[in-house]
Design goal:
With 311 residues, this protein is α+β, with helices and mostly antiparallel strands. It has one domain. Helices cover 58% and strands 10% of the residues. The chain is built from 11 helices and 5 strands; from the N terminus they run ββββαααααααααααβ. The protein has a 5-stranded mixed sheet. Helix 3 packs across helix 4 and helix 7 crosses helix 9. It is globular. The relative contact order is 0.18. The N terminus is likely disordered.
Length: 311
């Protein structure tokens, strides 16, 4: 099983589980109501490895962002099915109409998110009466940050999100376990931090900051079309943010690196929680499955039954 820290891994928390990405594939592990850990493994080669242009700076970040969104949605659908699966019931194929319905919900949610974080701040900035283009975009950025912080605070008040945050913490602790180049086990993961500098929460914070500078170059939007055209710059903003995250990872022991990661780590105090052993067990299974390309080595510490499905 590869353990080189340079072979970056990543993931996200899902419903009662964790999705992990590693070179070659993606594994999603979910604890079902009957206690069995159901794991789905998918072979996956990133576009950046298949097409050279997608390896170029900025562009690779935009493509990675889109890929992560697609993989995340797929993993969420799988986790929702498994987390609600009754004991003794066989896994059934999701009906087409349910997939379409879920897709519609995702598209609508994505549109609402863009409106909340990129259009509402413009409306609020208009109310201030600011005319200067640079100041206008600075105020717009401040409103965007405030909305982002309020959004994070609001979801932390939602009681059902606590377990998701615990799985988020389990994901980070298990990845730290891997990066330490020691056996990936529950015991070794328990001693690792739950705040990780390459977290999606940190990425979103950088998106908020980078958007201020990118939009400043566009001046003050005067028409609806000029406001909507800003949405087209979101992939660019994501690409730049991705490069900043990579830069902070390379220089994480320097003053600059620590300054870059500090705000994101602070936000993770809201979006992660300390997991219990059963949640760490799920994260360990997910990562070991992803690294071994669907065939995790047996580990005596992992006591739960595991069911691996390839697709």
């Amino acid at each position: 099983m590869p353990k080189a820290p340079q072979a970056l891994v990543g993931g996200q928390a899902v419903i009662e589980g964790v999705m992990m990405r590693a070179p070659g594939g993606v594994a999603t592990a979910v604890r079902r109501p009957d206690g069995v850990i159901s794991v789905r493994y998918q072979n996956h080669v990133p576009f950046a490895h298949r097409f050279f242009p997608f390896r170029l700076p900025i562009l690779r970040g935009a493509v990675t962002l889109i890929e992560a969104l697609v993989l995340g949605i797929s993993s969420l659908m799988y986790s929702a099915e498994e987390a609600a699966r009754e004991e003794g019931k066989e896994r059934k194929q999701t009906p087409t109409w349910e997939k379409i319905g879920f897709g519609v919900v995702v598209v609508v949610s994505f549109a609402l998110g863009l409106g909340l974080f990129f259009y509402l701040p413009l409306i609020l900035t208009d109310l201030t009466g600011v005319r200067n283009g640079f100041v206008y975009n600075l105020v717009d950025g401040v409103f965007r940050l405030v909305i982002f912080f309020l959004y994070l605070f609001a979801i932390t008040r939602w009681g059902e999100m606590k377990r998701v945050f615990q799985y988020h913490g389990a994901e980070h602790m298990t990845i730290f376990n891997y990066e330490a180049e020691v056996p990936i086990t529950v015991a070794n993961s328990q001693t690792r931090p739950r705040l990780h500098p390459r977290c999606g929460t940190s990425f979103l914070f950088f998106v908020m900051i980078v958007s201020i500078f990118v939009f400043a170059m566009l001046g003050k939007p005067e028409t609806v079309s000029e406001r909507l055209i800003r949405i087209a710059f979101v992939p660019l903003i994501g690409g730049i943010s991705y490069e900043v995250i990579r830069l902070s990872a390379r220089f994480d022991q320097t003053v600059l690196g620590k300054m870059l990661v500090a705000p994101g780590l602070g936000l993770q105090l809201l979006t992660t929680a300390v997991p219990d052993e059963t949640q760490l067990e799920v994260a360990v299974i997910a990562l070991r499955t992803a690294l071994s390309r669907g065939h995790p080595e047996p580990e005596p510490v992992l006591a739960s039954a595991v069911e691996v499905n390839e697709s």
